[in-house]
What we know:
This protein is an alpha+beta fold. Helices cover 15% and strands 33% of the residues.
Amino acid sequence: MVATGYATAVTDPDEIERYVRLPEPWxxxxxxxxxxxxPEPVTGFRLREGGP
Length: 52
Protein backbone atom coordinates (compact mmCIF):
# COMPACT_ATOMS: atom_id res chain seq x y z
CA MET A 1 0.00 0.00 0.00
CA VAL A 2 1.17 3.51 -0.77
CA ALA A 3 -0.35 6.57 0.92
CA THR A 4 0.46 10.10 -0.19
CA GLY A 5 -0.37 13.26 1.71
CA TYR A 6 0.89 16.51 3.17
CA ALA A 7 2.80 16.53 6.46
CA THR A 8 1.97 19.15 9.09
CA ALA A 9 3.32 19.74 12.57
CA VAL A 10 0.96 18.87 15.42
CA THR A 11 0.63 21.98 17.58
CA ASP A 12 -2.56 21.36 19.60
CA PRO A 13 -1.50 20.66 23.23
CA ASP A 14 -4.24 18.01 23.72
CA GLU A 15 -3.14 16.12 20.61
CA ILE A 16 0.51 16.32 21.62
CA GLU A 17 -0.37 14.88 25.05
CA ARG A 18 -2.15 11.99 23.31
CA TYR A 19 0.92 11.23 21.19
CA VAL A 20 3.16 11.28 24.28
CA ARG A 21 1.15 8.32 25.66
CA LEU A 22 1.53 6.22 22.48
CA PRO A 23 4.28 3.59 22.09
CA GLU A 24 7.89 4.75 22.21
CA PRO A 25 9.51 6.10 19.03
CA TRP A 26 11.67 3.69 17.03
CA UNK A 27 14.73 5.94 17.04
CA UNK A 28 16.99 6.50 20.00
CA UNK A 29 16.66 9.67 22.04
CA UNK A 30 12.89 10.09 22.25
CA UNK A 31 10.60 12.39 20.33
CA UNK A 32 10.81 16.16 20.14
CA UNK A 33 7.48 16.69 18.37
CA UNK A 34 4.79 15.08 16.25
CA UNK A 35 4.03 15.22 12.54
CA UNK A 36 0.64 14.33 11.07
CA UNK A 37 0.21 12.98 7.55
CA UNK A 38 -3.37 12.91 6.25
CA PRO A 39 -3.37 10.53 3.31
CA GLU A 40 -5.14 11.63 0.15
CA PRO A 41 -4.74 8.95 -2.52
CA VAL A 42 -4.14 5.43 -1.18
CA THR A 43 -3.23 2.77 -3.71
CA GLY A 44 -2.28 -0.87 -3.55
CA PHE A 45 -3.62 -4.37 -3.95
CA ARG A 46 -4.89 -7.10 -1.67
CA LEU A 47 -3.10 -10.45 -1.40
CA ARG A 48 -5.39 -13.45 -0.99
CA GLU A 49 -4.56 -16.88 0.29
CA GLY A 50 -5.08 -19.69 -2.20
CA GLY A 51 -4.47 -17.97 -5.51
CA PRO A 52 -6.75 -16.02 -7.89
